[in-house]
Amino acid sequence: MQRLLATTAAVFLTLPAFAQEARPPVPTAAPNATNQTPAFDGQTRAPQPPEATAFQVETVAEDLPKLWAMELLPDDRMLVTAKDGALHIIKDGAAGPAIEGVPDVVNEGQGGLLDVALGNDFAENGTIFFSFSEPREGGNGTALAKARLVEDGGTARLEDVETIFSQQPTYDGDKHFGSRIAVAPDDVIWLTVGERSDPEPRVQAQDLGSHFGKVIRITTDGEPAEGNPFADQDGARPEIWSLGHRNTQAATLGPDGQFWMIEHGPKGGDELNRPEAGKNYGWPEVTYGIEYSGKPVGEGITQRADTQQPLYYWDPVIAPSGMAFYEGDMFPALDGAILVGGLAAQAVVILHMDGDRVVHEERIPVEARVRDVKVGPDGAIYAVTEDNGGSSTILRITPEA
User: What pLDDT does residue 9 have?
Assistant: First the structure.
């Protein structure tokens, strides 16, 4: 089941061969926050690279349930989460039956079955981790569970399912759950948790007694990880690594082992961050962008001495979801680049990096909302897309033939 999408690639293949200097930034609309200026050169609207990435796109699987995340299995199959609360294995272009044993989820608004990640011991015992909007008395919250994926006689099920983290407090809402999972080689679990969007709870992104708007760092048993900065502070949640985040749906570990993330901003203000222990990233007191109403966010402050600046930001937004560092042989020019799923951008956004600075930005348009992005063992780029009709497609992106 393969369908080449040649129409989008043509945009990138017409660059004159003599062009050696960086090209202008990706064309976008004017910024929403017209009175804001970046804190340093290159913090936004980086130029495109001198030579565009030539690519082609083929369909791996289509007419799938509305997916939220994808994990590549060692045998070339794919493990995916459907927002309605089902796990599926993708094989030969089709989704297998729903895997038994998934807990109930709140499939409302932005809630549902969210991210999935393989444990370091997956090959030995099938350990996986998955996040979901957990139904509770009085509302709901982001939760993280671990389980064993067991396959027997052509069917799959989850065994030993255990919820190892439940975001507190409970809130009765349907927005900004986060969440992405990154499993470090030392079995530390990184989890992003949204600030629940509404005016009252979102201020808790600044409250160490709340998990809202935080990066969470725990062990595979759900205990606070060693080295967490607030573990001994009275009234603070010991699982917290950093604070002042909005709604992070893109996160991954870099080649250097550090945790990177991109969070949804307001109207303008998507942010690339590499959160450091105990640091405050500002939301909702310090941010780029504006409210959806057009009013300033808070006092309209973009810089403050006690908060961290984003490494890069977008205005207008790309609406980031899913993130991976490129490591592979298919696209040598992308080595070390960050790949980001763009919901609003309807593209795989590519950030060419020099250390922690974005030096170039380019995009691979796919004419659909990109929910997740992964790099295969062969170096191909895989993107999960969704359409307004509620179905998803998995695409494979390779160099131009």
Answer: 37
Average pLDDT, the chain: 94
Residue carrying the six token digits 């989008």: 8
Q: Cα-flanking dihedrals φ and ψ of residue 236, to 5°?
A: -95, 150
Nearest CA to 218 out of 241, 249, 193, 244 is that of 241
Are the C-beta atoms of 50 and 59 separated by less than 8 Å?
Answer: no
With respect to CATH, is domain 1-64+258-401 assigned 2.40.50.140? Answer: no
Altogether, the residues listed in the chain come to a count of 401
Reported pTM: 0.94
Distance CA 398, CA 55 (A): 6
88 is catalytic: no
**Range from 105-114, 178-187, 224-233, 380-389 carrying the lowest mean pLDDT:** 380-389
Distance (Å, whole) CA 366 – CA 86: 26
Which residues of the chain are in CATH 2.120.10.30 domains? 1-64+258-401, 67-244
Query: Does position 2 have pLDDT exceeding 70, yes or no?
Result: no
Q: Which fold has domain 67-244?
A: Neuraminidase (2.120.10)
Determine which one of 88, 176, 245, 352 is catalytic: 176
Could you please report the per-residue DSSP string of 305-343?
Answer: TTSPPPSEEESS---EEEEEE--SSS-GGGTT-EEEEET
pLDDT tens digits, one per residue of 278-298 = 999 999 999 999 999 999 999
